[in-house]
Amino acid sequence: MVSRVIPVDPFDLVIFGGTGDLARRKILPGLFRRFCAGQMPKDARIIGAARADMDAAGYRDMVAEAIAEFGGARACEDGTLEEFLDRLDYVSIDARGEKGWQDLAEMVRGDVVRAFYFSVGPSLFGDLAERLNTHGMTDAATRIVVEKPFGRDLASAKALNRDLAAYFDESQIYRIDHYLGKETVQNLMAVRFGNMLFEPLWNSQYVDHIQITVAETVGVGGRGEYYDRSGAMRDMVQNHLMQLLCLIAMEPPSKFDPDAVRDEKLKVIRALDAVEPHHIVRGQYEAGAEGPGYREEAGDPRSRTESYIAMKVGISNWRWAGTPFYLRTGKRLKARSSEITVVFKELNHSIFGEQQDHRNVLSIRLQPNEGITLGVTIKEPGPGGMRLVDVPLDMTFADALGEEGADQTDAYERLIMDVIRGNQTLFMRGDEVEAAWAWTDPIIEGWEARGDVPKTYDSGSEGPVDAVQMLARDTRVWRKVAP
Length: 483
Ligand code: NAP
Hints:
Layout: E1 11-16, H1 21-36, E2 45-50, H2 56-70, H3 80-85, E3 88-92, H4 101-107, E4 113-118, H5 125-134, E5 142-146, H6 154-165, E6 173-175, H7 183-194, E7 207-215, H8 224-228, H9 231-249, H10 258-270, E8 280-285, H11 294-298, E9 308-313, E10 325-330, E11 337-344, E12 361-367, E13 371-379, E14 388-396, H12 397-405, H13 411-421, H14 430-450, E15 455-457, H15 465-472
Parallel strand pairs: 1-2, 1-4, 2-3, 4-5, 5-6, 7-10, 8-15
Antiparallel strand pairs: 7-11, 8-9, 9-10, 11-12, 12-13, 13-14
Bound molecules: NADP nicotinamide-adenine-dinucleotide phosphate.
């Protein structure tokens, strides 16, 4: 297959927090890979911005080190790194003060796309927006990119939306959820709406239940204190799992257009049922061969924050009433694996008189080994009558599409290029984020009011046994957490 890389328009990208962890690990190496792929025009410019005193040469050295450490392009011609570094500049700026703002206003060009990436803590979003406005950098050619977490509850998300809306139109605001930049997540939409096969069956008449799993093997490590203030519900469910749920459950948008897609996602969030306490299992990992237990890493021996969550979610609309969605995510689990599984109902009647349960199961693997597997029932080969067996129709993208199927364009690369192109389809709209918090808040408030203590689970396991029991009560089982 021939790769089709379409260069984007010339741009100035300012990265506030340009010396931070996210910029060094994801944003800058990602931009370099896009440069190598020929997607970044030669006259694009990237300006790092942070308080540290540094000149452009010092910043280029820092970025070169970050690219060496966190992965540049696999195949990039000699000399390309230097060409890329030539596009970089740096400004020492204080988001909360006056230092550097005039310099920045003089550096950015007025005749190209201007994107400002807020890769700093959310407490600085309002200051940045205000100062961009004071210094004349909020016109229609300007876009701002904001990182998660977008609030920690509905009230704080509303306050952030208000701070940004004071100076920017919603069409200028790009709220990142990097899960939406993953290739397979977009494939969810391609599979559902690009094939005749699935959509007619995509409803409670034919689908028994759906599982969404995002399992990690790592613990909270050095981020323990930060993580302890959020937990799996805020860190993973309210954003990433909710976005996956929306894409799986939404009605077909009339076209693949940012607002048409986001309108449909919003309707799903608004149709979510309140979750009963006995339909949620929270967990905390214990010490194991992989490292210390959660409470030790969080630095609080009495912490009640969850590193694992499993829940049963209902959607009250015509399509999904009666089909449960089971979501789970956790740290220090057996394998790193993200998967969405659609389990279809049993046949109404088997002409083969078999007692065994044969169901079609569609699995969409987000990581690792991105791909799609459809479990189908066939005749077991050989003589001896009609015995049925389930086999997987497996499409691992790397096998099916060769080099390009394995194309690991990172989510951040894709999303930044979308910002420059002005395509908001894969970014969360303000009302979507607020609706997600409005659903999440009462759940968290309930735990706090009841003093809910998470169940413990072994590091390297599949999570708390209570999560297994929750499905067993519905005579269902979780898919194995396997790489
Ligand atoms: P970080 O490593 O702490 O970096 C923060 C950056 O902001 C530094 O460049 C810092 O440089 C700059 N900064 C701090 N205060 C400033 C001020 N008053 N004015 C101007 N610049 C200032 O943080 P991070 O991990 O990169 O995270 C950045 C944002 O991305 C956060 O909202 C985080 O939640 C989000 N995020 C991070 C990750 C990740 O993997 N790291 C993943 C998802 C989301 P100076 O101190 O020199 O000013």
